[in-house]
């Protein structure tokens, strides 16, 4: 059987060839991305991307467990990381451990990701000391949209020191990698040079040790969400729209189903 990449193996890739990462929420998409990816993230972005929620705040542990199980059924090689949802870890290290343990035990994934820097240091080291590999996430942390006042670029000008300190705190606490979201490229480069664990960028420029995108975004599965940091490698929403139109036309005009899609009396 294929051996999945371990968090330790990911950590050892610091400064090596770029780590390729994408999100997945379902078994078929996990099967598609697995051969090309080092890390597959079951992101809490699932709430917005698949469930139509207005932010990630409404995502539950049960949703993350369900999607984590689905993704694990489709993976062979990539390391699976599952996001801890809002409200499942911020209260205390003990609360975080209880919920992270459920995520790993019930999905079979090998690691969790949680948002926050300095104020999550104690929690990250608590989890790592008890057998739970943690990926950090600093810069724009979407679960804090209400205190950040929107999905703005973080770490500009006087704010750079805060984000740098957050990245250091996460690495010092024992995280095996850290996501840098929506930062000026120069700051992400500084962080990447200074912290000893791989940085995985999203909207953080080319200097990071790896890159991640939401798979539905890079496949162009939406017509209505196009942030600057997303490159569309396909336009599947347009292809799907055309296919659905063609189906509707053929049903209305009686051209589908044809003989070849229909059954005769004899088997
Ligand atoms: O939820 C998510 O998809 C993420 C990535 C964008 C890093 O956290
Ligand atoms: Na997330």
TrEMBL record:
One GO biological process term: pantothenate biosynthetic process
Name where it's found. Answer: Cytoplasm
Q: Pfam families, per this entry? A: Pantoate_transf
Q: Which UniProt keywords apply?
A: Cytoplasm, Magnesium, Metal-binding, Methyltransferase, Pantothenate biosynthesis, Transferase
Keyword ATP-binding among UniProt keywords: no
Q: Which CDD domains has this protein been placed in?
A: KPHMT-like (cd06557)
Residues annotated as binding Mg(2+) are 44, 83, 115
Q: What Gene Ontology terms describe where this protein resides (cellular component)?
A: cytoplasm
Q: What is its EC number?
A: 2.1.2.11
Query: Could you give the subunit structure recorded for this chain?
Result: Homodecamer; pentamer of dimers.
State the function annotated in the UniProt record.
Answer: Catalyzes the reversible reaction in which hydroxymethyl group from 5,10-methylenetetrahydrofolate is transferred onto alpha-ketoisovalerate to form ketopantoate.
Family assignment? Answer: Belongs to the PanB family.
Protein name (database record): 3-methyl-2-oxobutanoate hydroxymethyltransferase
Q: Which organism is it from?
A: Swaminathania salitolerans
């Amino acid at each position: 059987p294929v051996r999945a990449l371990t968090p330790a193996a990911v950590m050892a890739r610091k400064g090596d060839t770029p780590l390729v990462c994408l999100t997945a929420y379902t078994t078929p998409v996990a099967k598609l991305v697995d051969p090309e990816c080092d890390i597959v993230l079951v992101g809490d972005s699932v709430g917005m991307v698949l469930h139509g929620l207005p932010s990630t705040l409404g995502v539950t542990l049960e949703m993350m467990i369900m999607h984590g199980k689905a993704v694990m059924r489709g993976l062979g090689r990539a390391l699976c990381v599952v996001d801890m949802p809002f409200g499942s870890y911020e209260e205390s290290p003990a609360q975080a451990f209880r919920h992270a343990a459920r995520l790993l035990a019930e999905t079979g994934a090998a690691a969790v990701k949680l948002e926050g820097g300095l104020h999550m240091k104690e929690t990250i080291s608590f989890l790592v000391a008890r057998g739970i590999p943690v990926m950090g996430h600093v810069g724009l942390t979407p679960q804090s949209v209400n205190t950040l006042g929107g999905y703005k670029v973080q770490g500009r000008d006087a704010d750079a020191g805060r984000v740098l300190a957050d990245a250091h705190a996460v690495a010092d606490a024992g995280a095996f990698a850290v996501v840098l979201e929506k930062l000026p490229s120069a700051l992400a480069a500084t962080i990447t040079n200074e912290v000893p664990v791989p940085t995985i960028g999203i909207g953080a420029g080319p200097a990071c040790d790896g890159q991640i995108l939401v798979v539905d975004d890079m496949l162009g599965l939406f017509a209505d969400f196009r942030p600057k940091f997303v490159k569309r490698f396909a336009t599947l929403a347009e292809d799907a729209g055309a296919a659905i139109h063609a189906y509707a036309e053929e049903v209305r005009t009686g051209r589908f189903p044809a003989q070849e899609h229909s059954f005769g009396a004899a088997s």
